[in-house]
Amino acid sequence: MGISENAAYLKGLFDGYEIDKNTKEGKIISEMLVLLSDMADKINALEADNKELHEYVEELDHDLGEVEEELYFSDDYDDDEDYEDYDDLNDDEDYDLEDGEFYEIECPSCGEIVCFDDSLEVDELVCPACGEKIGGIEICDGNCAECEEDCE
Known about the structure:
The chain has 152 residues and is mainly alpha-helical. It is built from 3 helices and 2 strands, in the order αααββ.
């Protein structure tokens, strides 16, 4: 039995017991039953609205999932488009590319070009394409004996 049915049942009991509505207790019970009935109607309306909103949110979530699928997992997605506006990226005060040195190496396992900066430990560098650890990297500071010309 739902909340509206319970309110109606209590009103029926009140009427069935023929409680005098002119007594103090009868007036209070009668007004409480009216209040209870109004509250049941409001709760039913809220439950209906909640169900409608839930269905709408589920539909939005589904649509958003399709958009994300199209944007992030599309076969024709071109990563190079993300980097066309290098000047915009460089203008960002929170992201300054000139704070450190950047290096590119070719992964010996898969041949992918891996970029990293001087904040990373070169002994712990892992190729993002194949997941293999890249070892044996030496970064020249311009003062090594192997350099015939100034590297800096």
